[in-house]
Task: inverse folding
């Protein structure tokens, strides 16, 4: 276990005038599972590679267990990294792939044998030790890559989208395996993904990045319920938060034809009204407005209903129960759960307290 601390960590790639990582501050606790989440190109891999020592640091500092390691080479940081591409040695057997790092570190043969067998047992690789990577399925390769990190018993595990090459079912399975593994090892882990479901289900905390910067840091439910800005509100959740234009009129917030009892705060006249699909009811209780049903999408456990609301420029999505009576073309009542709604500043995109 270890703590990892990033202070104003910054990366500018040579020849580029953009900052790939822009003054990132993040403290990862002993044994914490920290997820870096954000869209493609936001700087997740670059951040992780600086922590691993695979990429030089342009500015700021990186500490492990309170000790600055900016200049410490990768091999001396006691960190193991698992990549999306797995990066297995193609000419080596599974056994040799697992043992390679330990051999290079001069660990005794008997100790290597013990550790490799234990990890192979845990990950269900015991029958595959003689195979070469080309003769393994994607999921098996992924487990070898994971095993190679575990046998080293590092202070910190880094994962860069390790599940994204797997099919959906395998991904859900491996997600569960990784959560169990984290509980068993109690190791500090930093996990990069652009998949918000992975982030929500795996992370003790999620660090949401955009454009090289940290936008929000918090527990999964905190960032889901209290998004710092419109980016987070629309990035987390599927379908995402509905973001509807609104304006204050006396004591009410007018959203389309709905007049909502919202106390006017600050100087904002124009705001964005944010409401999650599960916080809109269509059962007819005290409706705020009416909408036309554009589509009904049954997902088995729930139904997504797509609405057009008068004077609202884009569709509004509602998460309904497994069966809903609404049909395409119906005019249906819309009730917003006002305790779960948020207001955002349309200029700064920040949430208004
Ligand atoms: N070796 C490099 N040289 C120059 N620019 C780079 C290099 N690697 C990455 N970048 C740029 O730095 C920015 C951050 O890239 P990074 O790979 O960290 O993003 P990411 O969040 O991991 O994205 P993805 O989800 O697509 O993997 C991007 O604009 C990218 O084009
Ligand atoms: Mg990446």
Result:
């Amino acid at each position: 276990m270890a703590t990892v601390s990033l202070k104003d960590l910054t990366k500018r790639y040579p020849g580029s005038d953009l900052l790939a990582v822009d003054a990132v501050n993040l403290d990862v606790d002993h044994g914490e599972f920290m997820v870096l989440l954000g869209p493609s190109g936001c700087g997740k891999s670059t951040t992780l590679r600086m922590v691993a020592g695979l990429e030089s640091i342009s500015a700021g500092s990186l500490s492990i267990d309170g000790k600055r390691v900016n200049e410490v080479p990768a091999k001396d940081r006691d960190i193991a990294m698992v990549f999306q591409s797995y990066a297995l040695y193609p000419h080596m057997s599974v056994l040799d792939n697992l043992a390679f790092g330990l051999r290079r570190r001069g660990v005794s043969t008997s100790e290597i044998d013990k550790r490799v067998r234990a990890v192979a047992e845990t990950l269900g690789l015991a029958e595959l030790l003689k195979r070469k990577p080309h003769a393994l399925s994607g999921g098996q390769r992924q487990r070898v890559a994971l095993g190679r990190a575990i046998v080293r018993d590092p202070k910190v595990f880094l994962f860069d989208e390790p599940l994204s090459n797997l099919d959906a079912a395998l991904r859900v399975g491996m997600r569960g395996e990784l959560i169990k593994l984290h509980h068993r090892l109690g190791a500090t882990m930093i996990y990069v993904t652009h998949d918000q479901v992975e982030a929500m289900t795996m992370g003790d905390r999620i660090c949401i990045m955009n454009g090289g910067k940290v936008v929000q840091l918090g527990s999964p439910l905190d960032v889901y319920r209290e998004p710092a800005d419109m980016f987070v509100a629309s990035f987390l959740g599927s379908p995402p938060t509905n973001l509807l234009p609104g304006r204050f009129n006396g004591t009410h917030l007018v959203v389309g034809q709905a007049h909502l009892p919202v106390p006017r705060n600050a100087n904002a006249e124009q705001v964005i009204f944010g409401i999650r699909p599960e916080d809109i009811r269509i059962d007819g209780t005290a409706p705020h407005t009416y909408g036309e049903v554009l589509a009904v999408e049954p997902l088995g456990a729930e139904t997504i209903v797509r609405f057009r609301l008068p004077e609202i420029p884009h569709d509004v999505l509602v998460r309904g129960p497994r069966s809903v009576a609404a049909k395409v073309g119906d005019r249906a009542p819309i009730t917003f759960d006002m305790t779960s709604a948020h207001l955002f500043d349309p200029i700064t995109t920040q949430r208004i307290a």
In short: The chain is about 25% helix and 30% strand. The two ends are 37 Å apart (CA to CA). The domain at 241-352 is CATH 2.40.50.140 (OB fold (Dihydrolipoamide Acetyltransferase, E2P)).
